[in-house]
Amino acid sequence: MSFDLAVLAMDEAADVAAARAMFERCTAGRHDEGEPDERVVAFYERLRARFPDSSPTPVDSPWMSTPLAIGVDHVIMSLGHSSRSDAALRAIEALATEFRLVLWDPQAGNATLPGPG
């Protein structure tokens, strides 16, 4: 069994409805074009340095599918339920906070929004 999480590059006016809409747009393949948001790039680089997402997926990987789904404004991750996933979840939460990204949990319909900068 797996669960998904996404980090979304949104502005400070983001709310749960906007995060849901952006996630749905991204998963439907309607991606924004342009230069990658540097917050997303930094998040992805730091996360994959600790938890590689290369194929084939390593045995001790938290990822259920690789490579991670990335776009100019998001990273979508599918995690398994394991102790390795717990460590990845803690890293995802910390990095999302550090880089001021919205953390979207599509299973619960919850968004963790960055506070004002």
Which series of helices and strands comes N to C? EHHEEHEE
- Overall mean confidence score, pLDDT: 90
End-to-end distance: 36 Å
Continuous helix count:
3
Sum up the overall morphology in one term.
Answer: globular
Low-pLDDT parts are: none
Helix content: 25-40%
CA radius of gyration is: 13 Å
How many distinct beta strands? 5
Question: Percent of residues in beta strands?
Answer: 15-25%
Order the strands across the largest sheet as they lie in space: 2-3-1-4-5
Q: What profile does the largest beta sheet have?
A: 5 strands, antiparallel
Describe the oligomeric state of these chains in a short phrase. single chain
Report the structural category: alpha+beta
Question: What labels would you give this structure?
Answer:
5-stranded antiparallel beta sheet; globular; 35% helix; alpha+beta; 117 residues
Could you describe the 3D structure shown?
The chain contains three helices and five strands. Strand 4 (102-105) and strand 5 form a beta hairpin. By secondary structure, the chain is α+β, with helices and mostly antiparallel strands. The protein starts with a strand and ends in a 5-residue tail after the last strand. The chain is 35% helix and 21% strand.
